[in-house]
Amino acid sequence: MFIKWLTGLIKGKKRRERAKVEIEELKKALLEDPKFRDEVLRELEYRTGRRDLLKAGVLGLLGFTVGSMVGGEAGAVTQPVNGSVAREVVSDYAVKIPKPCTCIVAQDGTGDYDVSPGEDASEVIQKAIDYAHSKGGGEVRIREGSYILDNTIELIDYSNIFISGIGFSTKIYVNLLKTQAIKITNSTNISLSNLYLSILGNLYPKWFIELSPATNVHISNIQINGKNFYNTIGIRTFNGSRNIYIYNNILKYCLEGIYFCGGSKTKPNDMCFVYNNICENCGRNGIYADNWTQKLNIHGNILVYNGLIGGDYFADRNGIEVTTHCSDIIIESNVVQNNIGAGIVVQNDSKDVIIVNNEIRNNGGGIYIGWGSGVSKFIISNNLINTSTIHAGIWSYLCNNGIISNNMILNNFLSGIVIDTSNEIYISSNYLKDNNHSNEKYFGEILIQSNKKESSDIYICGNTILNKKIKEKIKKMKPCNNIYTANNILD
Fold it and tell me: Is residue 468 part of a domain?
């Protein structure tokens, strides 16, 4: 019996020692690893909903009790544990631990900041954001409900602010005329997510969300509904913003869905990523970039039924438009359908453009590149361009140094490919079939022509061109120089 008791005592002592080591390791991790500490605190707060218990538990783990002396030094003040989650505590390692700040906005009386349904919520939401900012950053969670904004929510010179709702059940109705609903200025590390934004009554803002400028901003899982007013831009990035990520959003019935305006050569938008968004039924373009925007990646978006207002078919009525001194642009793997103008337009002294793997169907035109004052250094490859209703599949105007290859171009109203007043263009390995429904003899499946100056140095090689209605599949209009054709299959 004694041996059994002694063995159990030894085992129990070892377990206690092992537990003590594990607790010390956990304390050290909480002190030294901010990412781990943040994840633990947020998870505990989310699961318990009790900030007082959470704070007491963490203090206890780090060697304190409620109301104990902080640091154990003479003259130190007591640190009561109460509802504030943004205070700093000091451990026995004499290290300050910034605790994450989470502010809850609600309509049922359970939040840190409460507002009654039907009342203006802008002041309450702004106070929650300002409080998080005063604590060095944090999260503002807006619970389910319908919130009204009579004033702009502003983040000016803020950092590390994360605003989130509960998906589309957090509805924000904007009651503002010709200003921003949410304005982010000179701020960094900002996140907006899981919200529904729309218009209340007949007043409409100029922009739902404006960045002017901002750095490292994530906008995700937001639905914006302009309610057929076509006066409000969904998301506007302006004046030298950098590292902007816009993804998984739905934007409809806006003037423009997503708009990048660089501002100037010295303040370009830089390193912007737009992916997996849906832009539909916008008055002008689904996605629009101009004025020195650079390093822009537009990937995996769906752009349908845009361009519902306006005059000229290809003036701001397109699925995607990039214009005026933009550079290093990648447009890839988008679905662009049923837009009034072209599927994709790139123009006006833009350069270094890659347009690949897009599906472009039933638009007014397919891909238009170089309108206005031309484009240099472009690649158009591996796109499907089907059934442009009033224009060509691909039209290059005033361009130089371009590659058009491996595209499938079918059933467009005018030619499959038009090269107009351009030079050093390589057209290879494309599949063209049954284009030129206009029955104009002027247009072949491929048309080379000149307007302001001669087209020259055009290489047409290895394409498959099928159209039994057109005898002259490759049409060359004078004056054109150095047009080379080889190894094309014509039928």
Answer: yes
Integer Cα distance of 397 and 314 in angstroms: 13
Domain that holds residue 236: 102-490
Rounded alpha-carbon distances, angstroms, from residue 88 to 42, 83, 99, 169, 181: 16, 13, 6, 34, 33
- Answer yes or no: do 157 and 30 share one domain: no
For residues 225 and 271, state if they share a domain: yes
CATH of the domain at 385: 2.160.20
The SS3 call for residue 276 is coil
Joined tokens for residue 44: 């505990």
C-beta neighbour count of 262 within 10 angstroms: 27
The torsion angle over the Cα atoms of residues 432, 435, 440 and 446, rounded to 10 degrees, is: -20
Question: Cα 436–442–446 angle (5° rounding)?
Answer: 55
Q: CA-CA distance, 458 to 394, in Å (whole number)?
A: 15
Number of domains in the chain: 2
DSSP 109: S
Interstrand relation of 400-405 and 423-428 (parallel, antiparallel or unpaired):
parallel
Residue 107 lies in a domain: yes
Angle between helices 2-32 and 34-48 (to 10 degrees): 110
DSSP state of 240: S
Q: Are 375 and 369 in contact (CB under 8 A)?
A: yes
pTM for the complete prediction?
Answer: 0.81
Shared domain for 141 and 14, answered yes or no, is no
In a domain, 90, yes or no: no
Query: In terms of domains, do 210 and 258 share one?
Result: yes
Q: Which residues pair with 214 in a beta bridge?
A: 187
Distances (CA, A) of 47 to 23, 51, 60, 130: 21, 11, 19, 25
d(CA 377, CA 366): 19
pLDDT in tens, the chain (491 residues): 544 544 555 556 566 666 566 667 766 776 777 666 666 665 555 444 444 445 455 555 555 443 433 333 333 333 333 333 333 333 333 334 444 588 999 999 989 999 999 999 999 999 999 999 999 999 999 999 999 999 999 999 999 999 999 988 999 999 998 899 999 999 999 999 999 999 998 888 999 999 999 999 999 999 999 998 788 999 999 989 999 999 999 999 999 999 999 877 888 999 999 999 999 999 999 999 999 999 999 999 999 999 988 766 666 789 999 999 999 999 999 999 999 999 999 999 999 999 999 999 999 999 999 977 899 999 999 999 999 999 999 999 999 999 999 999 999 999 999 999 999 999 999 999 999 887 666 788 999 999 878 999 999 999 999 998 888 899 988 788 899 999 999 98
User: In the structure encoding, which two tokens stand for residue 91, read together?
Assistant: 């451990």
